[in-house]
Amino acid sequence: MGQAQPDPFYFNIMTTFKRFLIILNVLFLILIAIFFTQNSEIVSVTFLFWQYESAQSIVLLSTFFTGAIISLLFILPFVIKGNKKTDKTADKEAE
Known about the structure:
The protein has 95 residues and is an alpha+beta fold. The chain has helices spanning 8-38, 56-94; strands at 42-47, 50-55.
């Protein structure tokens, strides 16, 4: 027996979807480049006794990513706890 041939319709959809993702990524990179060029002024950030000068776009993006990481760290225990509950219910259903 030979290998099963992939469905050509499915292949065309996935190829189209991959092209769409590539175009979406390129547009996103263009927007990031525009953001960096429009926010290139130097700003000073002061926190307690610490002072730092950098481009405004770098400060904004680092603030965003720091907030996203902190949010994920707060959500992580609830996600793990939820996965353990679903694993227990799946084990009970399997029995």
